[in-house]
Amino acid sequence: MLKVLDSAVPVACWSCAVAHNDATLFCPHCSKIQPPPGGDYFSVFGLVPQLDLDLGMLEHQFHKLSRKLHPDRFARAHEKEKQWSLADTALLNDAYRTLKDPIRRTEYLLKLHGAEIGEEHAGKDRKDQKDPSRVPADLLEEAFDLNMQLEEMRMAKKMGDTDPDLQLSLQQAKKKFDGLLDDVDRDLRAQWKVWDAGCENARQESQKRMVGLLDRRRYIGNLVRDVTETLGA
């Protein structure tokens, strides 16, 4: 488990004993592989923790480190180095998948800063959050109507019936909710810039906004998923 934004802790290389950053996969002095690091995912790639990430640099670093961790390079290495190469590779892949995806990256960095994000936290009272409800207030009525239509469609399909009007209504609802997802993503990207450039107070306010946006996105995404599955069943 990577530690929370604690990538500047010096540790001694097991091979040459020279101190180095504990987030590195290889010793910068002797180039020997190191045990799985203790820093955050950003530090694994040598990147500054931020939301508006340079994806080109992320990909470059990923492929560079992947080549260095290739099993063929450790065919004659000590057993512990072989094990570390496997563990480091698994960590590298997980870090890359997390940081490459804009939503996972946002959730990850906010969690590093103490934000409560995810289904298990949705609907909980959050300090200083005005609307902690899992269901966005402006979508309550539409979500209720949509769920009723989904149930009607499921029952109709079980009976072997088709309802073109109901199907069209669900397709239109999906199109609308897809648009709402685009709106949320646009608002999130705007908050990235506030977060990356802001002072501590600005970041705290931005974090609250992004947590709310992520809750909203999760809920709308679930509705889109349900409509897609029901129409495709």
From TrEMBL:
An example Gene Ontology molecular-function term: ATPase activator activity
Domain J: 40-112
PROSITE patterns: DNAJ_2
Domain of life per record: Bacteria
GO terms of biological process kind: [2Fe-2S] cluster assembly
Biological function: Co-chaperone involved in the maturation of iron-sulfur cluster-containing proteins. Seems to help targeting proteins to be folded toward HscA.
Protein name (record): Fe-S protein assembly co-chaperone HscB
Lineage of the organism: Bacteria, Pseudomonadati, Acidobacteriota, Terriglobia, Terriglobales
Chain's gene name: hscB
